Amino acid sequence: MSFQKILQNLPSVAKPSKTLSFKQKLKWTALPLIAFFILGEVALFGLEPGAAGGDIFGSLRAILATSFGTVLTLGIGPLVMGSIILQLLNGAGVFKFDMSTPEGKATYQGAQKILALAFTLFEAAVLVISGQIASSALLAASKGLFFANSIVIAQIVLGGIIIIYLDEVVSKWGFSSGISLFIAGGVSLEIITRSLDPFRLGPGQPINGAIPAFISSLVEGSIQFIRVHPNDMLALFATIIVFVVTMYAQTMKVEIPISYGRIRGFARRYPLPLVYASNMPVIFIAALIANLNFWVAMLNKAGINLLGYFDPAGGAHGFIFYISPYTSFAKDLIQTNVGALDLLHAFTYFTVVVLGSIMFSKLWVGISGTNSKALAEKLVNSGMQIPGFRTDTRVIEKVLDRYIPSLTVLGGAFVGALAAIAEFSGALGGGTGVLLTVGIIYQLYQEIASEQLMEMHPAIRGFLGEGGLI
Fold it and tell me: Cβ atoms within 10 A of the Cβ of 441, count?
């Protein structure tokens, strides 16, 4: 059996044998999300108390759906990293995946699983062996260090496998994808916590939630709109502004007139969104930066400061500092507390995110089947045509080439710039996290609305095909 056949025959979640109802899809979206939240509270067995030595993913924690020291210590990071590697290999022509055929899709999904599992195993082993997550000294004394480390590694790997298959369940049986759903769930939970948590962080510490802290300051007669703690009213207002701007950006589209060749008079406009590659480029660049954080932390443990280092308090220094999110830039500007190095930090981070988003946008459009050729084939197979042009895939592809390549680059640059500026604002849940969550919820709403329409009018499903052109 060839390696390609092995990839195609890896254990996978079967597709539903019939069209699922709206309620069934909603159920299979909600159940994996509930399971995700539960797993995020399951602490690793065999850890030394207090030995989960600091969250190395920092402000990217919510975006990667990680919960350090639990079964979801690595979150969706390995799965996203596997996708990044495959996209780069596909873009470089090292491996080619024909996403228009079931075999090509199965090969891609199998390769993604193998890479995600390899990253999970490797990163878990490095975390435990380096002492970033230390196994119990008592367990190591009684059963041996190898056994104690293996127990912790196995649990992290199990969590990674569960995430892989939960993502597949949502993608095939529910709405949206598991990756998107877990990001939205994690960021939403963090926004709620950082906005409304009425408890103090510890004895003599400030109140955690922005709104309770602001109310408390009013009662005490000292209005604290901005405070040292990151959860303040400035961050809350920044979150609202990012939300509004992102929602507006989601509605910006280029519309192409299309008609149905078999029915005279049936015409509509096919929308090509400005953010054509969706928010996937930002997810990929965030995952890439998070993985660089991981490797810098691990190299520091080995005494190597090649790309910078983290001090005992978790502060970044060197190269890794300049490509990390600058979440207090807006607050520092207001308080006139910005120096030359801070401006360099902001400029470097902005440039890396924008250029990275453009690159991943082009790669994602190619691998996801949304390029001009794939969309032209979809329109022709659905019986659609562009008025004034022959119903030929090559002709329609040339028409779409006027828009899609430009939208891919412009959309990637726009969403990258929006993500970087959102991070500068210090928004609750992380600026990038809020941007991603708004985009995910908007797309989820569109998918749910489309599904409800097709359930109410079954003829539309047969007319446009499963998923339609919406």
Answer: 18
Q: Are strands 316-317 and 267-273 parallel, antiparallel or unpaired?
A: unpaired
Q: Write down the CATH number for the domain with range 1-11+20-174.
A: 1.10.3370.10
Q: Which residues contact 399 (CB under 8 A, 6 or more apart)?
A: 256, 386, 389
pLDDT in tens, 28-62: 999 999 999 999 889 888 887 765 555 666 666 77
What is the rounded distance in angstroms from the CA atom of residue 463 to the CA atom of residue 104? 26
Contact 116, 79 (CB under 8 A): yes
Distances (CA, A) of 438 to 65, 185, 361: 16, 11, 18
Q: Is 65 left (phi over 0), alpha (psi -120 to 50) or beta?
A: left
How far is 114 from 3, CA to CA, in rounded Å?
12
**3-class secondary structure, 267:** strand
Q: In DSSP terms, which residues pair with 47 in a beta bridge?
A: 135
What the block records as the tokens of 284 is 């990929």
- Give residue-wise pLDDT tens across range 424-442: 988 888 878 888 888 888 8
Give the DSSP H/E element, type plus range, for residue 6: helix 3-8
Give the separation between CA 279 and CA 39, rounded to whole angstroms: 25
Give domain limits for the chain: 1-11+20-174, 246-470
Helices (H), 130-251: 137-143, 145-173, 178-196, 210-219, 233-250
Residue 316 backbone dihedrals phi, psi, to 5 degrees: -90, 145
**Whether the predicted model's global pTM rises above the 0.85 cut:** no
Rounded Cα distance between 209 and 207, Å, is 6
Instruction: Report the CATH fold assignment for 246-470.
Output: Preprotein translocase SecY subunit (1.10.3370)
